[in-house]
Design goal:
The structure holds two protein chains of two kinds.
Chain A: H1 2-21, H2 30-62, E1 68-76, E2 80-83, E3 87-90, E4 93-99, H3 101-124, H4 131-150, H5 154-172, H6 179-210, H7 215-225, H8 231-248, H9 257-260, H10 266-275, H11 280-287, H12 289-294, H13 296-317, H14 323-343, H15 347-374, H16 387-390, H17 392-406, H18 412-427, H19 429-454, H20 463-472, H21 494-509, H22 526-531, H23 550-577, H24 582-590, H25 592-599, H26 604-677, H27 684-704
Antiparallel strand pairs in A: 1-4, 2-3
Helix pairs in contact in A: 1-2, 1-4, 2-3, 2-4, 3-4, 3-10, 3-15, 3-21, 4-5, 5-6, 5-10, 6-8, 8-11, 8-13, 10-15, 11-15, 13-14, 13-19, 14-15, 14-18, 14-19, 15-17, 15-18, 15-21, 17-19, 17-21, 18-19, 18-23, 19-23, 24-25
Chain B: H1 8-28, H2 32-57, H3 61-91
Helix pairs in contact in B: 1-2, 2-3
Classes of the chains: A mainly alpha, B mainly alpha.
């Protein structure tokens, strides 16, 4: 199994390597395209097949509760060290993989959804010059995502965590010649940095507390320690981990990058920004469930942030007109749902929703991609309409996925959402209320999207007009998809609709693994008992799945279905029955301030712009001023001191003292000579008299003054 | 030693007087020939000195020296007179003050 695991992870890396080296070749020749497709699809298909046959099936058939771990080599050997609590431990990090029910679930989602989206992208991206480059990034992303979910310790996870962030950046900025795409890429990258900072701090703290970053050891220690043992440290670890999760999974207040990330090609939005990467934060929280359960404070924070994000993004979603923006806010909202689930202790429900959401949201995004593809790059829903006539297959698959996300039984979304809401009910009523309102809003904005896009009359002109307009006024934030179809909307090729059909089927049946006891399932549900080994006992108390009386369950279910139906009915009234959207428009006009607030996404981007970016710039300017005036001033002062004090002073000293001395000597010599030349009169008798006088003087001194 | 022979001090006094007279003459007189003669006077004062000490110390070296001095003085007089003649031809005068071209 260890070799199969390695193959699963390394095959996409190999694909990325091969296609990366071929990225500059012309993708429009038959030969090059065939090779690119074969490498990219072959790598992901083989990876998915090996993951299924070589990893998951053997693990399941083995029937053991034990996680399978295999270490390939010691990645970071760093000797012995002392950790808090006086424990001596060796700080070694292995390059190791772990297979347990949780990573199996994620493995299946990532490899198969990843493969399907690869197939879809061969159709969607067929007109792109960067075709091979696109698949290089996509394969690289698969590699990093697999590292993230299969790693057996936090460090390997961190490598994948950073890697998917990089791929996300590369793919959002895929149309790097468009400013808004490049900016969106940078925004995603920088926002994720904040989260990653929290994550790496959490990993350090885990190292410091437990002396290792291996899941098995950390969780065994935490599980044995129970709730009280680590106290505030556990809360700190969990909150820092959650900062990381909030960055990666677009939670308040770090969600701002995800809507902008829609600047990337639609398959990327589906794969990375809906189905897989953004759920990495949920995966990480569920993976660390033992740590989180030690800290009720952290759990409460996770649940609250999740619930607030869910309703916050859902309210924005009802006022957006860009089809991908609606889906983006819907994704943020659903991610909030998943964190809500994790926060209220329904870890299996969180992963269940990750799975069902991957099915229907991938389907929705790919369907939106198909619509955009068919409308020649148009993304504004106000210019669509009536598309069910032009694109019947896209219409049906999207309708299924829309019903699924709205939570109508018996589709997948109903079961996961119901499990979450049932848990929220027993955890806290306000959070449950937020969840239910979000469910209603979700049903409303999803059906609004559906009716605006597929019903009524086609409101777009001919595609040429749009193509020409778009070329001159590219909508900011729009997927810069190539406009190559100069005719009416048309159905997409089979490579795209086929994938949509598979995902639609999954969106229908995906929920059946989690049928609750009240609807004739088992307790715990199949999915819950599958994931049970991941939920270690804490301080000797085994994990309990939520139970409620059947009456309560029925009531909760009825409420959530009713509010979903109400949302759908409202959307039907406003956008289907009322073809001209008179009521919707007048409502928007009557509540103009609210509508403007929602349409402008609560001005969060503007607030961040004003506070964070301007603040940063302000600090930068202040530092720049300090640098320019104080630091440079000191340097210049030194210079002035040198010039005026040193230079001029020295100059004066040189001129007056040194030169003065020299000149003084010369002057003295001259003056002396003038005085002394008098003695040389030329009169020999003078000389003789001086000599004689001298002798007399000497004689007098010698004879009479001699002491 | 006979008593008529004066003492060394007397010779020295004579010598000193002669030397002083010669020196004053050299310094004071303007006539170049007089100056020359005064130099001779000073030389002979020295000779008296040398002879006196030679006698006093019974050493002949002093007398030998005085003979030398007389010889050299003859040469000196010859050269000095030659210079005076040349000066006279140049300046039409033998006044010492006339010959002061080498002043500073």
């Amino acid at each position: 199994m260890d070799k199969a695991l390695l193959a699963v992870v390394l095959l996409p890396a190999l694909g990325a390597l091969i296609n990366g080296l071929r990225a500059s070749r012309d993708p429009f020749t038959r030969k090059n395209r065939t090779i690119t497709n074969a490498v990219a699809l072959g790598a992901t298909l083989l990876s998915a097949l090996i993951a299924t046959i070589g990893v998951v099936l053997p693990y399941v058939s083995h029937g053991t509760q034990q996680a399978y771990e295999h270490s390939y080599y010691t990645w970071i050997p760093s000797g012995m060290g002392q950790v808090a609590g006086g424990l001596i431990s060796s700080f070694n990090v292995d390059f190791a993989f772990r297979v347990d029910p949780l990573s199996c679930t994620m493995l299946m989602i990532v490899t198969w959804i990843g493969f399907l989206i690869h197939v879809y992208a061969t159709g969607y991206m067929s007109h792109e010059h960067g075709y091979t480059r696109f698949f290089t990034y996509l394969n690289l992303f698969m590699f990093m995502m697999l590292l993230l979910i299969l790693g057996a310790n936090y460090m390997v996870m961190f490598v994948g965590w950073e890697g998917v962030g990089l791929c996300s950046y590369l793919l959002i900025g895929f149309y790097y010649d468009k400013t808004f795409a490049a900016d969106a890429g940078k925004k995603a990258f920088i926002t994720n940095r904040i989260g990653d900072f929290g994550f790496i701090l959490a990993v350090f703290l885990i190292f410091n507390t437990f002396g290792t970053s291996d899941y098995s050891k950390v969780f065994a220690l935490a599980s044995a320690g129970g709730t009280g043992q680590y106290g505030a440290v556990a809360t700190a670890i969990c909150l820092l981990l959650f900062v990381g999760a909030a960055g990666k999974s677009a939670q308040l207040p770090l969600y701002v990058w995800l809507p902008d990330a829609m600047a990337g090609p639609t398959p990327v939005s589906a794969l990375i920004h809906a189905a897989t990467m953004v759920t990495a934060g949920v995966y990480m929280v569920v993976r660390s469930n033992v740590l989180f359960r030690m800290s009720p404070t952290a759990m409460a924070v996770v649940a609250t942030v999740g619930a607030l994000t869910a309703i916050f993004a859902a309210t924005i979603g009802i006022a957006q007109n860009d089809i991908k923006k609606v889906l983006a806010y819907s994704t943020v909202s659903q991610l909030g749902y998943m964190f809500l689930a994790a926060g209220v202790g329904a870890f299996t429900a969180a992963i269940f929703h990750v799975m069902t959401h991957a099915f229907f949201k991938a389907c929705l995004f790919l369907g939106a991609g198909s619509v955009i593809h068919g409308c020649g790059g148009e993304q504004d829903m106000r210019k669509m309409g009536g598309l069910r006539k032009f694109m019947p297959r896209t219409h049906w698959t999207m309708l299924v996925a829309t019903i699924a996300i709205s939570g109508i039984p018996p589709l997948a979304g109903f079961f996961s959402k119901d499990e979450i809401l049932a848990n929220a009910w027993s955890y806290s009523k306000p959070i449950w209320i937020l969840g239910v309102i979000t469910a209603g809003l979700t049903a409303f904005y999803m059906f609004r999207l559906y009716f605006m896009t597929f019903h009524g009359q086609y409101r777009g002109g001919h595609a040429e007009v749009h193509a020409a307009q778009d070329a001159h006024h590219p909508a900011p934030g729009a997927d810069a998809h190539a406009n190559t179809h100069a005719h009416d909307p048309h159905e997409s090729p089979i490579s795209m609709t086929g994938v949509l059909a598979i995902l639609a089927v999954l969106a229908v049946i995906g929920g059946f693994v989690g049928i609750p006891a009240v609807l004739g399932g088992s307790h715990p549900t199949t999915f819950q008992s599958w994931l049970e080994p991941v939920l270690l006992p804490l301080g000797g108390h085994p994990f309990h799945f939520h139970t409620a009386s059947h009456a309560t369950e029925w009531a909760l279910m009825a409420v959530s279905v009713l509010i979903a139906v109400a949302g759908i009915f409202l959307a039907f009234r406003l956008y289907k029955r009322d073809e001209q959207w008179v009521a919707a428009t007048s409502l928007a006009r009557r509540f103009a301030p609210i509508h403007r607030l929602l349409a402008n996404k609560y001005y969060v981007d503007e607030i961040y712009n004003a506070v964070v970016i301007r603040g940063t710039l302000l600090i930068c300017r202040a530092l720049w001023w300090f640098d320019r005036n104080i630091v440079d001033g000191l340097v210049n002062l030194t210079r002035h001191l040198t010039v005026f004090g040193g230079g001029h002073g020295m100059n004066l000293f040189d001129r007056f003292v040194v030169d003065g001395l020299v000149n003084g000597v010369a002057w003295g010599a001259g003056r002396g000579s003038v005085a002394l030349r008098r003695m040389q009169s030329g009169l020999v008798q003078n000389y003789a008299m001086v000599m004689g006088g001298g002798i007399v003087l000497l004689a007098v001194v010698y004879l009479f003054l001699k002491p | 030693m006979p008593a008529s022979v004066p003492s060394t001090e007397a010779y020295l006094m004579l010598s000193a007087t002669l030397f002083a007279v010669g020196l004053v003459g050299v310094v004071m007189r303007r006539n170049m020939i007089t100056v020359l003669m005064c130099i001779e006077l000073m030389l002979n004062a020295v000779n008296i000195n040398l002879v006196a000490f030679s006698h006093r110390l019974a050493n002949l070296e002093g007398q030998v020296f005085s003979i030398f001095v007389i010889t050299i003085a003859a040469g000196e007089a010859a050269v000095g007179l030659a210079i005076i003649i040349q000066l006279y031809r140049l300046r039409s005068s033998i006044n010492v003050d006339e010959a002061r071209t080498l002043n500073g």
